[in-house]
């Protein structure tokens, strides 16, 4: 059943994808009016799907990677709507929608009857660990998207040309605030998520677990995240430098994610 | 539909003519009352702004509005004739739609005109001078203006340098609230731009000038703070927006200044608006992350590209107006046959009632069922007879032969065209 709801959500996200593509061509205002309710409905169905998945979990086995993909996509959409509610801008959707669509597309390809992985850990804790880390990931991704939008807006303001499409992006200060707030919001989740993961791993495997490259990658990602936050806070790094750092953190996060799901 | 409009605007008449015709708001009611008292005038409205004076009427027969203009304002005919434009019927509809949509404005797309038209309408309506046809025309005009604004980007770009400066500042800082503006030098343009920034909510405003007294004057006028010119470099870091217009022959701010400012301000962006020639700010500074430098040419380039953009949008708006004029004309024509249809129905109903009354005496007492049967039968006959004339009237309302058909039907049924009362003529 979760799969059924997920597929409905996917179909509705298709509109979001269409929006992202059309936005590049410049047609946005009217599209936003149709897109928002449609994608919003998709997110509701997605939520139902996630809840059903949780309900069906027996906590003896781990979720498949596809279920985590689904959760990540849902969290991204939740971030999108939280930002929309606060700043009245749909611009981050240009990057978030395609990403959520691809994740959902991949997520719905699993079979409900496929055997799930038995987990060596105490099951509830692993869910806590993953959920926290995924919220952290989503915040990092959205912050990354914001820093790209910031760069584009900065370029277009400096170029002094009249680029019609980009001129509809929110103000530079607004994009900056979105990115910064997401970073701050995600940091405790990421930190506690990784701590939870470390405790689990150490309890099971001892200190040797920390020599695992994927664990090192996760730690590296966390370090870059911390640097990003620190430079922003202490020196006000934004724009290009922040975008570079966010790219590093994002890349480390992506590699860590891939490493974690393909043992 | 019998609309007539006469007027002058910024294109047709110089300001000397316009100001002689301008009607102060307090006098508007009097002007409107006088207008609707003219022979043949049913409804009237007067729009008087600094760029136009227009009299809009709905008339029973063609009225000489020029005559009214001359007598009301006491201007000689020769002084006016070459400056006046006059429209009738469909052209009035188009003109009113264009005015309300700001296509006829001096600065195409400026938003004030719609409010001015609405105000003029409210005054005339309050006096009872606008009720049926003009009411329909104006409420449609407001809807058209809204449509134009929604479907085109006609009002979305700024076309004056000060407005562009504000727009850019908002693109960088979002809201201008709590932002500090630093005005360096005291040019007229800088003053204008500062005024605009303040109007858009800029928080603190600082002034400096080589002649300190001038800075003090400006600070007093704008409720800002005057700073001695020697302290420019130590204080400029407080500002988010810096407006420069000094006569300095060398740039006041170079790249090095920009770098220092960025580190002092923790990389918070700064916006430099340089309206001085020669320039007060080294354009190299624009290369620094977080520094945005626009000189007078940059601002002008944005302004003129916005104007081109507006022209393109205005063309799209004109197409919308074409469609809307057509639609309105069709609607008005179909409304024009309504009185005839009503008279026709009333006419037949009167005959029916008279005939029933006449026969009732001969039939004696009737049971309620019999009464009902007679009623149903006579109504049926009338409805069937009237079906074709009514549908023909409706379906041909928008066609060229409508007037002929209309007239023929009125004559055949001998409908009193003056009273519309529906009483058959004896």
What does this structure look like?
The complex is a heterodimer of chains A (263) and B (426). Chain A has 263 residues and is mainly alpha-helical. Chain A has 2 domains: 1-114; 119-263, no CATH class. Chain A is built from 8 helices and no strands. In chain A, helix 1 (2-25) runs antiparallel to helix 2 and helix 2 packs across helix 3 (65-87). The longest helix of chain A is centred in the middle third of the chain and has 37 residues, at 123-159. Chain B is an alpha/beta fold and 426 residues long. Chain B folds into 3 domains: 3-156, Beta Polymerase, domain 2 (2-Layer Sandwich), CATH 3.30.460.30; 161-303, Rossmann fold (3-Layer(aba) Sandwich); 333-412, no CATH class. Chain B has helices spanning 15-21, 28-36, 65-73, 77-81, 89-100, 112-126, 133-151, 161-173, 188-199, 212-222, 232-235, 255-264, 296-336, 338-363, 368-395, 402-412; strands spanning 3-9, 41-48, 52-59, 85-88, 181-184, 205-208, 225-226, 241-244, 270-274, 291-295. In chain B, the strands form 2 sheets. Chain B has a 6-stranded parallel β-sheet. Chain B has a 4-stranded antiparallel β-sheet with strand order 2-3-1-4, with helices on both faces. In chain B, strand 2 (41-48) and strand 3 form a beta hairpin. The longest helix of chain B is centred in the C-terminal third of the chain and has 41 residues, at 296-336. The two termini of chain B are 30 Å apart. The interface between A and B is medium-sized, with 20 and 22 residues.
Q: What is the radius of gyration of chain B?
A: 33 Å
Strand content of chain B: 5-15%
Helical percent range of chain B? 40-55%
Give the CATH H-level superfamily of the largest domain in chain B: Glutamyl-tRNA reductase, N-terminal domain
Q: Could you give the distance between the termini of chain B?
A: 30 Å
- What portion of residues of chain A is helical? over 70%
Number of helices of chain A: 8
Task: Determine the most extensive contact between two protein chains.
Answer: A-B, 20 and 22 residues
Instruction: Give, in order, the helices and strands of chain B.
Output: EHHEEHHEHHHHEHEHEHEHEEHHHH
């Amino acid at each position: 059943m979760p799969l059924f709801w997920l597929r409905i959500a996917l179909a509705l996200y298709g509109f979001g994808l269409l929006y992202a593509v059309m936005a590049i061509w410049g047609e946005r205002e009217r599209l936003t009016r149709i897109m928002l309710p449609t994608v919003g409905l998709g997110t509701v169905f997605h939520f139902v799907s996630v809840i059903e998945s949780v309900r069906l979990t027996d906590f003896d086995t781990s979720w498949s990677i596809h279920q985590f993909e689904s959760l990540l996509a849902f969290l991204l959409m939740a971030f999108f709507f939280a930002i929309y509610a606060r700043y009245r801008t749909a611009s981050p959707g240009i990057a978030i929608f395609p990403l959520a669509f691809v994740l959902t597309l991949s997520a719905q390809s699993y079979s409900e009857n496929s055997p799930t992985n038995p987990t060596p850990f105490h099951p509830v804790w692993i869910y806590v660990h993953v959920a926290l880390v995924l919220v952290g990931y989503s915040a990092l991704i959205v912050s990354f998207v914001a820093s790209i939008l910031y760069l584009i807006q900065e370029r277009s303001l400096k170029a002094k040309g009249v680029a019609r499409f980009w001129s509809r992006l929110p103000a530079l200060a607004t994009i900056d605030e979105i990115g910064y707030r997401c970073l701050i919001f995600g940091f405790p989740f990421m930190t506690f998520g990784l701590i939870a993961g470390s405790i689990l791993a150490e309890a099971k495997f001892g200190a040797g677990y920390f020599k695992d490259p994927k664990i090192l990658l996760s730690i590296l990602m966390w370090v870059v995240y911390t640097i990003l936050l620190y430079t922003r806070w202490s020196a006000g790094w934004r724009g290009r430098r922040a975008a570079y750092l966010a790219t590093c953190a994002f890349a480390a996060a992506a590699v860590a994610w891939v490493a974690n799901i393909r043992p | 539909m019998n609309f007539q409009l006469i007027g002058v605007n910024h294109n047709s008449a110089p300001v000397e003519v316009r100001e002689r015709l301008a009607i102060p708001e307090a006098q508007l009611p009097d002007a409107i009352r006088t207008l609707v008292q003219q022979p043949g005038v049913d409804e009237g409205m007067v729009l008087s702004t600094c760029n136009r004076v227009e009299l809009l009427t709905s008339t029973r027969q063609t009225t000489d509005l020029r005559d009214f203009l001359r007598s009301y304002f006491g201007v000689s005919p020769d002084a006016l004739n070459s400056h006046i434009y006059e429209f009738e019927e469909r052209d009035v509809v188009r003109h009113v739609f264009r005015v309300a949509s700001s296509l006829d404005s001096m600065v195409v797309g400026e938003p004030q005109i719609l409010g001015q038209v609405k105000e003029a309408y409210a005054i005339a309506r309050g006096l009872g001078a606008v009720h049926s046809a003009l009411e329909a025309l104006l409420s449609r005009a407001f809807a058209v203006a809204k449509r134009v604004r929604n479907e085109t980007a006609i009002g979305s770009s700024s076309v004056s340098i000060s407005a562009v400066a504000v727009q850019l500042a908002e693109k960088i800082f979002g809201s201008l609230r709590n932002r500090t503006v630093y005005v360096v030098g005291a040019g007229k343009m800088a003053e204008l731009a500062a005024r605009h920034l303040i109007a858009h909510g800029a928080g603190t405003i600082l002034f400096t000038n080589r002649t300190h007294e001038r800075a003090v004057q400006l600070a007093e006028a704008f409720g800002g703070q005057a700073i001695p010119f020697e302290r420019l470099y130590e204080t400029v870091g407080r500002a988010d927006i810096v407006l420069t217009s000094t006569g300095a022959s060398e740039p006041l701010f170079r790249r090095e200044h920009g770098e220092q400012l960025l580190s002092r301000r923790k990389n918070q962006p700064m916006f430099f608006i340089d309206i001085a020639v020669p320039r007060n700010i080294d354009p190299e500074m624009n290369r620094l992350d977080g520094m945005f430098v626009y000189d007078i040419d940059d601002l002008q380039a944005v302004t003129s590209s916005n104007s081109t953009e507006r022209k393109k949008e205005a063309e799209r708006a004109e197409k919308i107006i074409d469609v809307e004029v057509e639609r309105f004309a069709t609607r008005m024509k179909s409304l024009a046959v309504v009185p005839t249809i009503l008279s026709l129905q009333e006419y037949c109903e009167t005959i029916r009632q008279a005939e029933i009354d006449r026969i009732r005496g001969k039939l004696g007492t009737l049971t309620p069922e019999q009464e009902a049967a007679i009623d149903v039968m006579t109504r049926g006959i009338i409805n069937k007879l009237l079906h074709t004339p009514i549908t023909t009237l409706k379906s041909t309302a928008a066609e060229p032969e409508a007037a002929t058909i209309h007239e023929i039907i009125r004559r055949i049924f001998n409908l009193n065209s003056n009273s519309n009362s529906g009483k058959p003529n004896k």
